[in-house]
Amino acid sequence: MRTRATTVLLAPLLVVALGACTQAKSAGGSAITVDASDDACTMSTSTTTTGDREFRITNTGTKVTEFYVLTEDGMVVSEVENLTPGMTRSLHVTLKRPGAYKGNCKPGMVGDGIDAALAVTGDTITTDTDPKLEAAAGEYQAWVSAQADELLIRTAEFVAAVKAKDVAQAKSLYAVARAPWERIEPVAESFGDLDPAIDGREDVIAEGLEFTGFHRLEKDLWVDGLQADSDAIADRLLADVTTIVEKSKAADLDGLKIANGAKELLDEMATGKITGEEDRYSHTDLHDFAANWEGSKKGMEVLKPILTDRNQDLVADYNQAATTLDGLIAAQREGEGYRLYTDVPQAEIKALSDALTAVGEQVGRVGAALATQ
Amino acid sequence: MPGTTREELTALLRAWTKATERMTLGAEAAPGGVAGGNPLAAPADTGEAMGLPASGLTVTIGFGPSLFDDRFGLADRRPEALIELPAFRGDALRPERSGGDMALQACAHDPQVAVHAIRNLVRIGAGRVSVRWSQLGFGRTSSTSTSQATPRNLFGYKDGTNNLKAEEPELLERHVWVQPDDVPGAAAWLAGGSYLVARRIRMHIEVWDRTSLQEQDATFGRRKLKGEPMGGSEEFDEPDFAALGSDGEPAIPRDSHVFLAHASQLDGIRILRRGYNFTDGTDGLGRLDAGLFFIAFMRDAHAQFVPMQRALAAKDRLNEYIVHDGSALFACPPGIDADDPSDVWGRALFT
């Protein structure tokens, strides 16, 4: 690979700023200059105040270098990379909280680098709660509530069909009843021990727990035929769903929880659905896949007004990846629902998986975007 | 991936170049990538190479024939010789282990460093490219320098005794590097580059292991311990194809690997082999899924690899013990210009 030869690009003007700096720093005006050589990292001051600061870094050494502003525990506040010998670059940083920060020069771009202490005093810069975030949480909450209602209605219909021994009807209602569940799964799952009772799969039930819920009835309907205790299992499913619906409607959600939920739904698709293991008897996995996706999309939809303010690129990248996945899922539609997963060719499963990875990388950026203003 | 645009592809090549430069220096794929970023964001570097040295990491990029269709406006940039390899007798190629629009090859002294490079580059490409196949190899099988002892393949034989060497610049120009006259006009971006042929060659290890030494030697045309050609006495002795054994037959059998692959039998054709051994666990029947991940560089695959492989596929006694189950051809552009900080992978191809 490239080893950069000494690029002669001198910027001699900077030295002038040195004297003025100590006075200017409290006013937040002049830049803090950094002399980054091969064996030293010298800043024009070791104290400053909170607020917007500019660092002017000159590489006076012979190696390509980097300059970081780090918090006390080593988190990168900001950095500038690829400073070739002789080059000067500016770095604008908002120091939000007082504390023991440090500058860090990294000649050769590897190793621990050379620290230069920077004590930051002054008040913490607070930012107001974004009213759009509260609006987003409210909107998502209302949607979860509506899905929870839907879940209860559809589960009741499914349970009624099971108890009426109408296997054909029950089979046709199974995937329909699961859809609202899959849309709000992260919220529902947060209520702990009811999740395995409602949605546990035969092989992941912990020792001592009974195999109940949707998948037990799925197995009865598609493989074993209705059993003596199928009615009791159905009754219990409805009771458990009723409880979780009440809890879900009262869940306390914020922007970060919505973002994490949007990611968890994608992770669920990538690990549980793309493998075809979720609905192993009915092979209706694509219904669950699509419902997970709808839930994840809803989370992103309510967050978009905030994200558009903070990181437009992220929204654009997400939209593009989401459009691709939308198209691939739409192509799997068949009649009222989706193709059986066993009928989907491997190449199409790979395309779904690739599209899912692309969306997941973007949704993975959302939490950090919400945390920075 | 479907829908990826030319602009996205060039942006990806820029991002790849930057991350690769960092990693080849032993740095994180991005500044503060392992644990210095926003705690609410996924780390920009996956972290498993943290604290490890650069380990001689090199990354090579290659462009496959399929990249030059109508998706990226490259149709008129395809060098004439960049067309898929033909089928060879006995091939059992699996599509999921063959072909591809682009290739990334990471080599390092430590496999953890090489895998880290590929993993992070793949992640950077999410949504724009997806992995068609990958193969991890170890223990390079061919010496490519006179300073290296000849390594052995998984059959236990020295491999690459007669390989082209870095110390033979004239031979490299003639057999390995694409010359300007080879790629006139719009294909000139490949001048100074090379073609990479990759073949996943599964070895029937257990069958080989119960084969007599005499048969093993006769299959290769070399003796196992020192690697000398049959009828010779030292590894680097020139094979004497005229020599006869005590039975009056040629000392080096006419269906041996060395005979068939030798330049003297192929109108002077030579290639630079740079293969690796691989084991991918077992095959479900308890047999090692192992073999040789053949990688070779050459000036024109269709003028060099193809006639060589045709001869081997037709007659090589080694075919009893191997099967080719993956194949790909890529054109690798010349390396990044060390004196130009703005140079990126594929710049000459996309401008």
Question: Gyration radius of chain A, to the nearest Å?
Answer: 28 Å
- Radius of gyration over C-alpha positions of chain B, nearest whole angstrom: 21 Å
* CATH topology name of the largest domain in chain A: A middle domain of Talin 1
Tell me the distance between the termini of chain B: 22 Å
User: Order of strands side by side in the largest beta sheet of chain A?
Assistant: 3-9-8-5-6
Architecture overview:
The complex is a heterodimer of chains A (373) and B (351). By secondary structure, chain A is α+β, with helices and mostly antiparallel strands. Chain A folds into two domains: 12-121, Immunoglobulin-like (Sandwich); 131-371, M75 peptidase, HXXE motif (A middle domain of Talin 1, Up-down Bundle), CATH 1.20.1420.20. Chain A has twelve helices and eleven strands. Chain A has helices spanning 18-27, 131-163, 167-183, 185-189, 194-199, 213-224, 230-249, 255-273, 285-310, 312-330, 346-363, 366-371, and strands at 32-36, 41-43, 47-49, 51-59, 65-70, 76-83, 88-95, 99-105, 114-121, 333-334, 337-338. With 351 residues, chain B is of the alpha+beta class. Chain B has two domains: 1-61 and 102-131, no CATH class; 85-98 and 133-350, no CATH class. Chain B has helices at residues 6-24, 111-124, 169-175, 205-209, 213-220, 257-261, 305-315, 347-350, and strands spanning 58-63, 102-107, 138-140, 194-203, 272-273, 276-282, 288-298, 322-332. In chain B, strands 3, 4, 5, 6, 7 and 8 form a six-stranded antiparallel beta sheet that branches. Chain B has a two-stranded antiparallel ribbon with strand order 1-2. The two termini of chain B are 22 Å apart. The mean pLDDT of chain B is 94. The interface between A and B is large, with 41 and 35 residues.
